[in-house]
Amino acid sequence: xxxxxxxxxxxxxxxxxxxxxxxxxxxxxxxxxxxxxxxxxxxxxxxxxxxxxxxxxxxxxxxxxxxxxxxxxxxxxxxxxxxxxxxxxxxxxxxxxxxxxxxxxxxxxxxxxxxxxxxxxxxxxxxxxxxxxxxxxxxxxxxxxxxxxxxxxxxxxxxxxxxxxxxxxxxxxxxxxxxxxxxxxxxxxxxxxxxxxxxxxxxxxxxxxxxxxxxxxxxxxxxxxxxxxxxxxxxxxxxxxxxxxxxxxxxxx
Amino acid sequence: xxxxxxxxxxxxxxxxxxxxxxxxxxxxxxxxxxxxxxxxxxxxxxxxxxxxxxxxxxxxxxxxxxxxxxxxxxxxxxxxxxxxxxxxxxxxxxxxxxxxxxxxxxxxxxxxxxxxxxxxxxxxxxxxxxxxxxxxxxxxxxxxxxxxxxxxxxxxxxxxxxxxxxxxxxxxxxxxxxxxxxxxxxxxxxxxxxxxxxxxxxxxxxxxxxxxxxxxxxxxxxxxxxxxxxxxxxxxxxxxxxxxxxxxxxxxxxxxxxxxxxxxxxxxxxxxxxxxxxxxxxxxxxxxxxxxxxxxxxxxxxxxxxxxxxxxxxxxxxxxxxxxxxxxxxxxx
Lengths: 253, 333
Fold this sequence. Notes:
The structure holds two protein chains of two kinds.
Chain A: E1 5-16, E2 19-30, E3 34-38, H1 45-51, E4 62-70, E5 73-74, H2 82-88, E6 89-92, H3 103-113, H4 119-132, H5 136-139, H6 152-164, E7 170-174, H7 182-195, E8 200-204, H8 208-214, E9 217-222, E10 225-231, H9 232-237, H10 242-248
Parallel strand pairs in A: 3-8, 3-9, 6-7, 7-8
Antiparallel strand pairs in A: 1-2, 1-4, 4-5, 9-10
Helix pairs in contact in A: 3-4, 3-6, 4-6
Chain B: H1 4-16, H2 22-53, H3 55-61, H4 64-67, E1 71-72, E2 77-78, H5 81-112, H6 115-129, H7 133-158, H8 160-164, H9 168-171, H10 181-206, H11 209-217, H12 222-251, H13 254-259, H14 282-289, H15 297-331
Antiparallel strand pairs in B: 1-2
């Protein structure tokens, strides 16, 4: 696979208080590809994901060592504003979290906050994001009604549209389908496959089939360590490590 | 090896065996219904008792009781308007002063304060809310009133700038000897602030952390997250908390009676916006006049005063609830 590195991770360790959650993680995540992290619950894959946009800064008593670079820029450098980082590295959460406001206002929230667009331009931006998130046709006639009335799958696509609205380069997804039914899951997977043309997608998933279907690269985490990282074909086809083989074949976890 | 028939019998057995527990359910539901009915009956009974006992006054005075502002046993004139406006004015001042402080403190406690400081401050605030009102009243007499008289009223009355400024010249004026609408309003504000703060804090904490994470994930600052996501979500609850505080200020008797001066403003309609003038509220009027009231129309009029307070707080409560429901409907589907 011909790739440009997007995120480079060097010797990253992470602690919640005195409890070490990540041990010396190293990897290079390619641009415009889907990278999946798999592993049993509590293996540190979500923690690692949240290091990439410094979401863990919000947790009291947490500590990270090592270096994470986004297109060559150290994301923990003093000159980096965490707000700008989180705009560039967007995030979709496990549960759909629409804001308690209208569908339109949910998508317009980010652009308004960052003063990216207003008036007609904002309308067009909202429409484009909803189209990109494959939600437009379902909501175009009720943009002013509350986002809370949408179904779970629609809410999650709305959250993806909201993430797209501030034009990120990287999109982090923390088990985005775990609360959804198979049909909604299918639609989101299709969406992710399309998104990688414009964005770098990094997804945490419990669903091995999903990782296999949609990802170009796969990382297998176990007890806070990155056991194996490589192309999904290799990780799922001919894994180098026995733990990986055991996990993907359902012998533990 | 059981036959198919045996098995179907055991299934139907397990379907019917639970019915002997049903009486527990009936007792449980019965008890709860009775208790809640008792509460409603109590409210109704209070209303009826007030209405019944104020009947002589209602018959004798008619609607003049609501519009009139004089209260004179000698002439037999009784009107509640001056007291009611005093009640609304003092509670209004309390709310105006208290709401910004309460909401800001609640935001600080729920969103900004470092963990180790949250618990002690929350504890102190809840302690403040539990101080008996007579203690606040004594503090008002011995500390607040002298302070206001010497440091606020006397300088303000001497100031020629205030005397020329519109609005301020009608607000910052009056007798200025201490007990006053200003003292009552401020004391009420101090009393309801911990109460409103404690409730607002709980409401803010009930907003899911995920909402804050989602906003932060879009690159908003903490201030933007609080202003644009947390506060709008909390709005219905916050309005409710403020209205509860208003209700407390509205009916507060002891502390107000001790600092308000207990005199109807000496104006043609018994109303005055002058903050340094003494005032009167419904609750303080009832407390003051009850011991001296002669049986008959004077007593009935005082009870009718209670009825006015009862009905007004009901109306305010109803208004608050509609407001909360409106705000909630704007947010939910």
